[in-house]
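quick one before i forget lol
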Amino acid sequence: AARDLGGEIEFKENGIIQKRAREVLDRALEMLKKIEKTGLVKAIERGYFADIKRPANGGKGADGVVERSKQYVNPFEQHWMS
């Protein structure tokens, strides 16, 4: 069955597929380190994602942003905004 096909496929050591996968992972790691150093909001402002820049205090869709409830909690916010 096609479900078992993955168990039959091997990729050549240092072949095209493995080299490309390594390159993609290395570039992703570089980008994540850059974002960690810069901060997520600054990374978005600078266009790290698909070369699309968005200001921290506005941008496309800002008119759809609403004020948060006093009970609103985002456990990741402090990490993202640093």
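fyi Residues 11-80 form one domain.
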